[in-house]
Amino acid sequence: xxxxxxxxxxxxxxxxxxxxxxxxxxxxxxxxxxxxxxxxxxxxxxxxxxxxxxxxxxxxxxxxxxxxxxxxxxxxxxxxxxxxxxxxxxxxxxxxxxxxxxxxxxxxxxxxxxxxxxxxxxxxxxxxxxxxxxxxxxxxxxxxxxxxxxxxxxxxxxxxxx
Length: 162
Hints:
alpha+beta
């Protein structure tokens, strides 16, 4: 089992749009590391950039459902956006209210090139949107309202990990 270190706010890989994974590329090691890393308690998802890899893949761990997706595309979100407390392994220990859609669907492929679809509501929808943001070089704090983001940045600057 290889649990990889999580990159934190300030690391340039977290602000970089991830590259697609080439068809037929052997990324089994990356996927194994993503799945191993997301299985630790309190983790709903881990995107490849969070472990320092600039590729489009993430793992998830929601309500005992553990999996991964390669080259995901957010195909739909629905419902009225809700203000939810959100945190991130790359912004450790800090949680802020963030608008997220209550339902989301992502499509992509598995390690064998087979198409897969992940759809969910509640925490799964939030995790799907959050991990897709990582692949676009965005952190959840980027979507906070102006005043909340100002407070988030203050707390980040004062944190012992920054």
